[in-house]
Amino acid sequence: RAILPLLALLEVGLAFGGLSGDQGWHAVPLFRKPAVSTGQLELVEEGLNVLRAQTEPFAIVSAVGPTRTGKSSILGRAFFRGEHENIFEVGSGVTSHTGGVWIASQPVEVKVADGSTLRVLFIDTEGFSGVGGITSKTYEANLFGLVYLLSSVVIFNTMFPVDASTVASLNAHASHALSMLQALTDSGQLVQKAKPRLVWSIQSFNIYNLHNSGMAATDLLAALRNASRASGAGIAVLGGEAASSSTWLVERLFEQQELVTVRRPHASDEVVANLAKYNSTILSADYLHDADQVRAAAMHDLKAVHRCKEAGTVLTLSECTPQPLVGTDFVAQVSLWLKHGYILDRSDLELDTADEAETLNRLRERNRKWFDEQCATLNEELRTKFYWYREESADNAKLRDEAVAAVDKMMKGFHGAALSRLVESGVFWKFPGKGAMLVEAQADQAMQRCKETLDGTRRHMEGWTASHRATKATPAQELFKKLEAEAPEPSGGLSYKLVAEDSSCFSNAGGAGDIHRLHLGNGMTLEACAEAVSKKCECGRGFEHDKGNDGYCGCGMAGTPNTDCTESDDDFSYGSARYIMFNPACLNQQSEARKRALEQANAAAGGEDGGGALAAAVVKDYDAPKKRRQVCFDVYD
After folding, report:
1. Please, are residues 80 and 294 in contact by the beta-carbon 8 Å criterion?
2. What is the DSSP string of 230-271?
3. Which residues is 61 bridged to in the sheet?
4. What angle do CA 315, 416, 51 make, to 5 degrees?
5. Global pTM?
6. Model confidence over 278-326: pLDDT tens digits?
7. Largest Cα–Cα distance of the chain, in whole Å?
8. Omega of the bond prior to 625 within 30 degrees of 0, cis?
9. d(CA 396, CA 408)
10. Closest Cα to residue 105, out of 41, 182, 26?
């Protein structure tokens, strides 16, 4: 009764919900759960659009609690009494009726204590421990945690009588909210908002039990508070003050707590069981009075959703300078909370293990394949960046260092990326605890393997960059003269030298395709490839062999700019190796091919060239512009 004067402040903007008959109020889904009990809520665009439509400051009042306790009814009778009092569908059986999280399609405008008008959106939630629905403790933990973050006021609705188990349940839900705050803090998503207020509504309350004990509702709340004290261990996320051995967790998470007793709606069991069929005019005056008390308690000192200017996680009102959020900003914040705030209730660990081994083995194999794919993508990206920045300069050295740091950072995101991907798997949630531990262990192993791979690639590319510069400084003709001087007797075998690793005979002359390279086959050893080149005098002096690419063998075409496989000597082909061969058996044919190329080039140039060098149009290296590649990483999905 002490807060009844506040109702006078609400009458203008919130007379029985403040709704007129033509507003079209209805409930729309904001979060839903998948068909399987994954515990991971899914955002629904219809509900998000309600939030996005809010261009002025707004508050959110949410109702949570055990199933079949009248959450939907008390929201309707307290805030929408009249035509829209059944805005949230009310069940009439023993199974859970509301599924997921629902939000009113439009806000209610209320006048608050300072005389200003504030828009309020109302949220109804699926009941905890429901019968007939597919749910899990993990799902309920995430539901409560998200509703806690969303709300300006949380109405925790239970049924009379309340005992130690009810208090323990509320404290457990509070610990879920705390775990979500910790998960967000660990992922760098600080929740900079003031703590919401808690209104504890106890329905079907026998008021004479209080009278007989000489107690008021405030006395009952104090007794319940003292019945559940928790040590401060594990709540450091709230700051040092929270670590008190006499702290009740609910007190640390909510700015204020108020208990409101709600008497039975009607003497008839049939009316109570089918409340949606009956309008408020036939309900108990005591019930409607108590519903007004719930409304007044929720509206008292109501604050808009906001972000505090001060750093810190869930601050008190005195510590927070609120900056109200509009709907689009709030939706972005909610999306981050959902993505990074996932928590696991440990009570879900004890599940049926009939097919546990087989299921987890399949999950393990899929995980490993996915991790390997991610690492291969990062590895290719590192090679690509080193190739782009291969020339020696201070800027390129800095860019190579940045490339190493970037792939290392993405690799360290394997943990979060893998969990975000796998929580969508029904297999994962069939064994959530062991599945989570499996993902954690595999992510650690994958990161170690990938780090070794990336370190090896970095060293390889650093060596390639240095050898590439050295190779470009050594003309092929100089290597060929050395081969000629060292040539063995005709019966002594073939004479060839390695020119460059990670290099090929790729041609792409003038963008006309790979026309100056001859393909000699696959499945060859280096020796077999050299033998094939020596017997094909259409080949020039250069050839390539790629052991990793099914033993590929190819050569540059004699009499072309690619005769030494240098037409595109800036080409990078990982794993391939480029050689130059002294092949006396083909010298005459190679000379004839060279002569024909000279004649053709000179004819095209309109003159004769007696200098023994190919015309500039023939000998210049082709350096086609390389298209910058874009690589998409699943680790950011």
Report:
1. no
2. --STT-GGG-GGG--TT--HHHHH-S-EEEEE---S-S-HHH
3. 122, 153
4. 50
5. 0.54
6. 889 999 999 999 999 999 999 988 999 999 998 877 888 888 999 999 9
7. 122
8. no
9. 18
10. 26
